[in-house]
């Protein structure tokens, strides 16, 4: 389908934002920096409802929409 990539300026901005926003969590900053460098393969993305079902989580109740 598609692969989302970032140009060099966007990569730099994303890396800087990851470091600034998550100074106490280097693992999360690393993941975000990696996404900036590698991009996102939209074909490999999974729907949140599929993940919930796979993990045995309850169905959405509508109270916490947009929370992942």
Unreliable residue stretches: none
- The spatial strand order of the largest sheet comes to 1-2
From the alpha carbons, calculate the radius of gyration and give it in angstroms: 15 Å
Shape: extended
Q: Report the portion of residues in β strands.
A: 5-15%
Total helices: the number is 3
Determine the N-to-C terminus distance.
Answer: 23 Å
Average residue-wise pLDDT: 81
Order of helices and strands: EHHEH
Main sheet specs: 2 strands, antiparallel
Count of DSSP strands: 2
**Fraction of helical residues:** 40-55%
Structural class, by secondary structure, is: mainly alpha
Task: Describe the structure in your own words.
With 68 residues, the chain is mostly helical. Helix content is 51%, strand content 6%. It starts with a strand and ends in a 13-residue tail after the last helix. The model has no long low-confidence stretch (mean pLDDT 81).
